[in-house]
Design a protein that fits this description.
The complex is a heterodimer of chains A (296) and B (354). Chain A is mainly α and 296 residues long. Chain A is 69% helix and 0% strand. Chain A is flat. In chain A, 32% of the residues are buried. In chain B, the strands form 4 sheets. Chain B has a 6-stranded mixed β-sheet with strand order 6-7-8-3-9-10, sandwiched between helices. In chain B, strands 13-12-11-14-20 form a 5-stranded antiparallel β-sheet. In chain B, strands 15-19-16-17-18 form a 5-stranded antiparallel β-sheet, with no helix packed on it. With 354 residues, chain B is α+β, with helices and mostly antiparallel strands. In chain B, strand 11 and strand 12 form a beta hairpin. In chain B, helix 3 crosses helix 4. Chain B has 8 helices and 20 strands. Chain B has 2 domains: 229 residues, P-loop containing nucleotide triphosphate hydrolases (Rossmann fold, 3-Layer(aba) Sandwich), CATH 3.40.50; 111 residues, OB fold (Dihydrolipoamide Acetyltransferase, E2P). The chains are: A mainly alpha (296), B alpha+beta (354). Chains A and B meet through helix 8 and helix 9 of A and strand 6 and helix 2 of B. The complex binds adenosine-5'-triphosphate and magnesium ion. Magnesium ion binds next to helix 1 of chain B. The site of adenosine-5'-triphosphate has 12 residues of chain B, from strand 2 and helix 1.
């Protein structure tokens, strides 16, 4: 051994090899690939029409304006009405909130019942639910329209919420069942010995432990409902069309010159809610997905 | 304190029977330990007594009520679990008071009883903490406290100490024993640790294969195991076993296996046939006596106060326990005697004690 040899001690030196370089290169290219359209959209939405007509898709706006954003929000025509996207925005809010609350609540209780209580035929019910998760829902539209209209739940707010809840139930149940199955069963037994019944155990013991899964379910359901197009189009009725449908109407019903800047602004506005949710809650989302058994 | 009586109970999971025709009578104030290897149905039996599991046949009585169909909370029992099962989001005080709160008892009463139980278990300073901020031993004490607060006639323990390290286990074992003496409550305690069983129990029920193999006092189980399984399961280091046959000799019956011929007490005169002989390491004595047999030391395992010696008698291996002061080395030649009153003989095949 020569005197100059390095003695391994303390933290291992980091190697920055080719493999790592390759990974970074790939990640950067992939990020650019997805960011490029966003970049173009944002730029275009800030340019006046005169500037857009000159071409120069990638050029920085020489005379930036928020006019297209204001127009998209307040006065753009979505079909026959010209009140902008804000109508659709509020419709979407009104659809999303009750759908998410109901779907999550019911899914949570379903999952709780299926994982802790010996419900007769529980395994069969769960199998059917699982199956429901995989059925392409387009197949069900026609019968569902008939059922909904018989129940008076077609073409109104109740209708779209009903459908949104029904389609979300399998996934929500699955999510919560698996989460509850990861909790120690003795916790449930202890509550039962203490005299807590079905609802009490759920409310006092299980609900406070459901935080991580609640966040995940919330993100999934809210973005899902917000991004939905086809269910809203079919079941919501003319007065309750969600933002996505109105955006589509706006973009497709243009007469004369296409107002690219305004359309870009409108699209960005529509995508804003899911984007904000992901940015704000990404950390909790990962934590919820990774949450296993609770210690304690 | 209440008596517990399990009458002809069957339990099956689907088509797999776990308990069959099980009878068990626990006297009021008794400390009964269910002892057995993993998977023998101890927890299943305890859960059935608690009402967490339905029986497929038979009855469960607690006090003098038939509680076969009653909910756990109506059976007058409290239970302590292996994993503590504390409610993570509640403080120690809330954990302990949860049962009473649900039962609708007034706040002052809940507070008072929680404080009393906490004082008994030295938990008073921890009442405001969450379970996550407690050590394993403290958590298990809280779990015991939660049972204590409910003021019931029967305590059920499902391996309450098996998640703790050896020292804590000893401490809490003493604490549980003290608690039993203080309260006089009926206790049913599941464990697969024979030291716990022997030290705590008034009576031990040794379980295996869906049934109770022997139900007796610790002393009886240790000195007169009912069959080969109980003999092998209880006692550490384990009993020596040798298969062979009983033959009638000039000077009375003897156990024979190859070159080995071991004189037996007269009570085995009429036994005859294929048997298994058992003797505990601590019952083999070095030296003296007319019946002593020559042996060669093979290996020596010091265990602190005692030493486990492996020796061969007529080519058959035996282990024996000696004081640590007895210095032996492999190759040493010694004489061993096998006191007749501590020799066990089991019928080959059935394993029944003769
Ligand atoms: N929910 C269940 N479904 C099917 N079989 C089960 C179920 N619970 C337990 N068993 C089976 O019943 C038998 C007894 O289980 P039990 O939990 O009572 O054992 P145990 O004596 O408590 O063991 P351990 O010392 O490991 O806790 C085991 O063979 C087990 O596989
Ligand atoms: Mg068990």
């Amino acid at each position: 051994m020569s005197a100059g040899a390095i003695v391994p001690e303390g933290p291992r030196p980091r190697h920055f090899g080719w493999a790592r370089l390759g990974i970074y290169a790939f990640l950067i290219v992939a990020a650019l690939f997805f960011l490029f359209p966003l970049y173009v959209m944002v730029l275009t939405s800030l340019k006046p029409m005169a500037e857009i007509r000159m071409g120069g898709l990638l050029a920085w706006p020489s005379d930036p304006t928020v006019e297209p954003w204001i127009k998209a929000w307040t006065s753009a025509c979505t079909g026959l009405r010209c009140e902008g996207l804000r109508v659709g925005f509020w419709n979407s809010v009104i659809i999303t909130i009750p759908s998410a609350v109901l779907a999550i609540l019911l899914g949570m209780i379903n999952g709780y019942a299926l994982s802790f209580w010996r419900v007769p035929w529980a395994n069969w019910m769960f199998a059917i639910l699982m199956f429901g998760t995989f059925i392409p829902y387009q197949v069900l539209f026609y019968p569902l329209v008939r059922i909904a209209s018989t129940l008076g739940l077609f073409g109104n707010l109740g209708g779209i919420v009903f459908v949104q809840v029904v389609f979300a139930l399998p996934v929500m149940t699955l999510l919560f069942r698996n989460y509850y199955a990861s909790l120690p069963e003795e916790l449930f037994k202890a509550a039962r010995v203490d005299g807590a019944g079905f609802w009490r155990t759920w409310f006092s013991i299980m609900l406070p432990l459901s935080g991580p899964m609640l966040v995940v379910a919330c993100i999934l359901k809210v973005t899902n409902t917000w991004n939905d197009y086809i269910l809203g189009l079919i079941f919501a009725g003319r007065d309750n069309l969600p933002m996505t449908v109105q955006l589509n109407n706006m973009v497709n019903s243009t007469l004369g010159e296409r107002e690219y800047n305004m359309e870009m602004a409108a699209t960005l506005l529509t995508a804003l809610v899911p984007l904000v949710i992901y940015f704000v809650s990404g950390r909790w989302f990962v934590r919820g997905i990774a949450a296993g058994a609770v210690k304690g | 304190m209440s008596q517990v009586s399990v009458r002809k109970v069957d339990i099956a999971f689907g088509s797999v029977p776990v308990l069959e025709q099980l009878d068990l009578e626990v006297a009021p104030g008794e400390f009964l330990v269910l002892l057995g290897p993993s998977g023998c149905g101890k927890s299943t039996l305890l859960n059935a007594i608690a009402g967490l599991l339905d029986v497929s046949r038979g009855q469960v009585w607690i006090g003098d009520r038939n509680v076969t169909w009653a909910e756990p909370k109506d059976r007058g029992i409290a239970m302590v679990f292996q994993s503590y099962a504390l409610y993570p989001q509640m403080t120690v005080a809330q954990n302990m008071g949860f049962g009473l709160k649900i039962a609708g008892r007034p706040r002052e009463e809940v507070d008072r009883r929680v404080r009393e139980a906490a004082a008994m278990l030295q938990l008073t300073t921890l009442l405001g903490r969450k379970p996550a901020a407690l050590s394993g031993g403290q958590r298990q004490r809280v779990a015991i406290g939660r049972a204590l607060v409910r003021d019931v006639g029967v305590f059920l323990f499902d391996e309450p100490l098996s998640n703790l390290d050896a020292q804590l286990r000893n401490e809490l074992r003493v604490e549980i024993k003290r608690l039993h003496q203080q309260l006089g409550t009926t206790m049913i305690y599941v464990t697969h640790d024979q030291i716990e069983a022997l030290t705590l129990a008034d009576r031990i029920a040794v379980m295996k294969d869906r049934t109770i193999q022997q139900l007796a006092t610790p002393e009886e189980i240790y000195l007169r195991p009912a069959n080969r399984f109980v003999a092998g399961f209880v006692g550490s280091p384990a009993m020596n076993f040798h298969a062979g046959a009983i033959e009638a000799g000039k000077s009375g019956p003897a156990f024979r296996r190859g070159e080995l011929s071991l004189p037996l007490p007269d009570r085995f005169r009429d036994a005859g046939g294929a048997v298994e002989l058992g003797i505990r390491p601590e019952h083999i004595v070095i030296g003296t006596g007319a019946d002593a047999l020559p042996a060669a030391v093979e290996m020596v395992e010091p265990m602190g106060a005692e030493t486990l010696v492996w020796a061969r008698v007529a080519d058959e291996p035996f282990s024996l326990r000696v004081e640590h002061t007895v210095k032996l080395r492999p190759g040493d030649r010694i004489d061993l005697s096998f006191p007749g009153e501590n020799v066990h003989v089991f019928r080959a095949g059935t394993g029944k004690r003769l």
